[in-house]
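Entry:
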Amino acid sequence: MLPIAAETSSAATAAKLDLGDNDVAQALFGGQNEHLKLIERRLGVRIAQRGTELRLSGQPEAVAFAARLLEQLEALIRAGRPVHREDVEQAIKVLGRAGGDEAEQAHIKDLFMGPVLRGSRRHVAPKSINQKRYIDAIREHDIVFGIGPAGTGKTYLAMAMAVAFLQERRVKRIVLCRPAVEAGEKLGFLPGDLAEKVNPYLRPLYDALNDMMEPDRATQLIENGTVEVAPLAFMRGRTLNDAFVILDEAQNTTVEQMKMFLTRLGFNSKAVVTGDVTQVDLPAGKASGLQHARDILRGIPGIELSLFTEVDVVRHPLVQEVIKAYDRAESEAKADPKAEPKDARPVGAQESTSEVKPPL
């Protein structure tokens, strides 16, 4: 991208950018300029396009933010990485969240081009600063806790790291487990034997595994025991050597179950524990093993705690807004337990809250 030519007034700024390459420009603009339209809507700038040239106008800080965003997306494209709508959404969140010195260190290319797993079926890489820290923590520590809301990639990235470790022969097997907590439906009423009863609880792990590799290959690894998917109760009394172990939905473990799981770890093994402490399905009066472990294991060498927020959500953009809305409702309920729930505002009224404003 050629240097920015800026025209500044007290109220607004105009900047010209020329990509100089038609293929790069088309990839950056998106089909029917959908990427540019998204940037306009999220950042409150105007973007006029003519050939490979862009003219940005708006408030100075918004224009500067949009220009930096476009430069980093351009660098990603020139490095050979295609850019999709969700990449633009995530790039806005990453750059908008970083502030001060961290803003200068937040390079989209370094995040999106830093692969966790390469394969014919899926190329997996972190898409936020916290996701990259999470991946680095898994590489460097033997026990890692990934705690945060749904859609932040906690389980998916842990699964990708497990498959990568297996492919690199750094471990001999992968063990995936979840607590089979009854949330509104009793196990006894589900059809089939025990394995068939707990299978619905383990389905998300199967889905993630099949997303990482060819289904036939995943089935083969499960059948020969290289990959084991089992309910948490099956871990009791075992020692797991040369294994990458993932405990998913850990907020639904009891304190005793969490202690049991963590003490299964053997030599040359890693354990990743993931969960969302705001979605505990345990019976009333039962303490969450994940919350308890988070409090008592801080500061122990070899154990790392990675926290995610709604900013790290990589699902549909509305998921981030849903999480924010529920967090607000819970905070208001705690502040005034007798208050009546507020009616939801029309969807159109929420549009402005989803914008990521550039840092001042």
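Residues 100-105, 182-187, 344-356 have pLDDT under 50 and may be disordered.
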